[in-house]
């Protein structure tokens, strides 16, 4: 369906972390041979992130890491990030309203709970309003370009609704502050305005979009660059994922859920054929603690998908790409900084001030990520999040004082600095759906290309729907909000 458009290796940027214009050099790097990555499992000793390593932030860190292993489950979910736990949450929701038999599910996580990209990211929940609309319309058609926006709003609304209906606003530090894209050059603004017009002409809802000239930006935010403001949130991703895990676990509905952290799946093999049926086990997952027999397998492993699925390594699959973040104290008050989250356009930087709590001083901590393009190879094919890049670190330290003169101190050192591994795909979109012919009962939702917060939760929902449809012998119908080009069977 999209083969023509997808055949060209086009890395379209949606991401906070993505490079906005991918040129020949970046494409060359993208084609680096997969063998250059020595190890496809998460490294055991990652850098400490603000989200994971703040006191009491991760009570589920070592859940199910000792004692007996669940050796048998209807659905085995590999990975405990946003995607894996969303899949479990949605399975539980879908089963609650059906006449299906109860199911058992197990989540297997290589490291601590939610210690991959979701626990190490920038915390932005920013659904795109119109950016890159023209590119998508040109490559895939207007309908698909609109569904690229729809999935992000569906995800973002879904997350915010759960947080609000469960009363988790304070627990997950939900901030409804909006998001500003700041333009560091004229071309970026021209391109953004063309995207805005194309999206507007196609019928996208753009009523919240607010363009700001340099004077406006200077008086409101203290930066002498123009920008555009859209609706957006930020939150504590790990705490949201813990929240939906707890909701799912405690529901006592038709899904019994088990979690085993510090239990990497090192390999998998097909089980001898068994009588067909709901509880027929097709796959054996091997871990250092024993093996687990499963009917369905969900690969929610994002950057690490290539370990268990060798065909996902390399430019046609998912390329591990390291992002870096600092948490740095501002010189200005929370009122001066406002609650807005930011990204630079063009560029790769993204930041927002953390809400203050009573125990902190009056100057907010700002979470700032990006700078990857300054490192050799743009940190592509780097799977080690146990170290930071000094080059990227130096760039990040100098960034905010230059953009907001007087609000940040050039000599101040970050309070924390960490890395995390993103899963990049050549077209910038995740793979969602059945893994393929030789993998009966296996599904994947991975490859969010640095822009997973407004997509991963909904992609987990889509995979949960597919599994329930398969179980009940029904044909799965794609929801209107899901871009068709994400589906595994539509990939080149
Ligand atoms: C530095 C950084 C900044 C980012 N900033 C933003 C942002 O501000 N906004 C945004 O929208 N997106 C951002 N992203 C992207 C976003 O975090 C991801 O797209 C999203 O979290 C992906 O969720 P996931 O559950 O698919 O993957 P992950 O959270 O990476 O989860 C995958 C899990 O699988 C586990 N795993 C892997 N292999 C195995 C195995 N064989 N056995 C068992 N477990 C395994 C891993 O340990 C990991 O916990 C950022 C990412 C990074 C790294």
Automatic annotation (TrEMBL):
Residues 74-466 form the FAD dependent oxidoreductase domain. Residues 1-21 form the signal peptide. GO terms for cellular component: cytoplasm. It comes from the Eukaryota. InterPro entries: FAD-dep_OxRdtase (IPR006076), FAD/NAD-bd_sf (IPR036188). Keywords: Signal. It holds the Pfam family DAO. The keyword Signal applies. Coiled coil: none annotated. This is FAD dependent oxidoreductase.
């Amino acid at each position: 369906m999209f083969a023509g458009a997808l055949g060209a290796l086009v890395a379209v940027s949606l991401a906070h972390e993505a490079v906005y214009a991918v040129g020949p050099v970046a494409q060359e790097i993208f084609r680096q041979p997969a063998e250059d990555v020595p190890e496809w499992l998460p490294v055991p000793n990652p850098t400490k992130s603000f989200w994971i390593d703040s006191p009491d932030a991760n009570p589920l860190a070592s859940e199910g890491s000792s004692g007996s292993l669940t050796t048998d489950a209807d659905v085995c979910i590999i990975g405990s990030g946003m995607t894996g736990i969303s899949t479990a949450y949605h399975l539980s929701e879908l089963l609650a309203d059906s006449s299906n038999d109860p199911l058992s599910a197990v989540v297997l996580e290589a490291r601590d709970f939610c210690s991959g990209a979701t626990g190490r990211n920038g915390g932005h929940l920013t659904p795109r309003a119109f950016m890159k609309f023209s590119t998508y319309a040109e490559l895939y058609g207007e309908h698909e370009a609109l569904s690229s926006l729809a999935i992000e709003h569906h995800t973002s609304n879904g997350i915010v609704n759960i947080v609000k209906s469960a009363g988790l606003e304070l627990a997950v530090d939900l901030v409804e502050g909006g998001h500003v894209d700041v333009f560091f050059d004229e071309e970026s603004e021209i391109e953004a305005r063309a995207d805005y017009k194309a999206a507007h002409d196609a019928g996208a809802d753009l009523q919240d979009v607010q363009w700001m000239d340099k004077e406006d930006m200077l008086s409101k935010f203290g930066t002498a660059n123009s920008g555009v403001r859209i609706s957006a949130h930020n939150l504590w991703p790990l705490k949201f994922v813990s929240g939906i895990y707890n909701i799912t676990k405690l529901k006592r509905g038709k899904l019994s859920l088990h979690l085993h952290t510090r239990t990497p799946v090192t390999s998998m093999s097909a089980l001898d054929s068994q009588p067909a049926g709901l509880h027929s086990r097709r796959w054996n997952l091997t871990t250092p603690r024993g093996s687990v027999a499963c009917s369905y397998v969900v690969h929610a492993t994002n950057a690490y998908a290539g370990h268990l699925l060798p065909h996902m390594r390399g430019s046609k699959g998912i390329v591990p790409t390291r992002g870096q973040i600092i948490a740095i104290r501002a010189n200005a008050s929370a009122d001066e900084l406002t609650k807005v989250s930011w990204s630079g356009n063009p560029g790769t930087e993204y930041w927002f001030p953390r809400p203050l709590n009573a125990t902190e001083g009056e100057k907010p901590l700002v979470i700032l990520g990006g700078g990857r393009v300054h490192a050799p190879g743009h940190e592509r094919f780097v799977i080690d999040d146990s170290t930071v890049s000094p080059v990227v670190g130096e760039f990040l330290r100098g960034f905010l004082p230059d953009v907001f003169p007087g609000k940040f101190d050039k000599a101040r050192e970050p309070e924390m600095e960490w890395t995390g591994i993103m899963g990049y795909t050549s077209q910038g979109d995740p793979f969602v759906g059945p893994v393929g012919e030789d993998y009966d009962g296996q599904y994947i939702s991975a490859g969010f290309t640095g822009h997973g917060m407004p997509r991963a939760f909904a992609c987990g929902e889509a995979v949960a729907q597919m599994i329930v449809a398969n179980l009940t012998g029904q044909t799965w119908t794609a929801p209107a909000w899901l871009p068709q080009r994400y589906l595994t069977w539509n990939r080149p």
